[in-house]
Amino acid sequence: MKRKILRFIWKAMLWFFGLSILSVIIFKWVPIPFTPLMVTRIIEFKLEGEDAIYSHKWVPLEDISPNLQKAVIASEDGNFLKHNGFDFEAMQKAFKNNNKGKRLKGGSTISQQTAKNIFLWQGRSYIRKGLEAYFTVLIELIWGKERIMEVYLNSIEMGNGVYGAQEAARHWYSKTATNLTPREAAGIAAILPNPRKFNASNSSSYINRRKDKIMRVMRHVGKIEY
User: Fold this and answer.
1) pLDDT tens digit string along 139-174?
2) Average per-residue pLDDT in the chain?
3) Distance of CA 16 to CAs 20, 134, 138, 141, 164, Å?
4) Dist CA 141 CA 168 (whole Å)
5) Fewer beta carbons under 10 A from the terminal one: N or C of the chain?
6) Element spanning 38, H or E
């Protein structure tokens, strides 16, 4: 019985590694139609008795303004172009701040957020964090920075039921993602910590201050070279 259990576990692990690597290879080229979070949100809407809101349209990275690319780097991951998936300095700072009782702040990179959003469920657990690290390594090795940014900007939640740069630009500013100004891009980046609560346009004073800070940092990002 013990040998059968071990054999089953071994086969399950082989299948997991094989399918996970295959899926990462496929999504290096194929647009990602939906994410686990999108499905979760639709279920939440239904359980609350509301009409499901789902707005998502994939566009290539060249159709997304460099302003938005700079804005998310400035706000979410200043070392995105330099690290290999993990920013250990940022993680250490976040750990110290959280231990001091300050406002909870994550140290996740854009690569980690992308791995989580595309392949995993929401929530906090050691299992999920371990799988997040595994998929982060895979996408860094197989996708590279340019594809990670493309997937990130096409998949993350940027409003209540709004996913990806194209629909966020349409929802908040009635324009395409190509034409986002630095201020508008900073507005979208500013709400990413809680896009269902905050507004990128007609924003609160708190979000406007975040926009100002992001724009200051954007000036130092420079030309993006993947």
Assistant:
1) 999 999 999 999 999 999 999 999 999 999 999 999
2) 91
3) 6, 12, 13, 18, 28
4) 29
5) N
6) helix 36-47
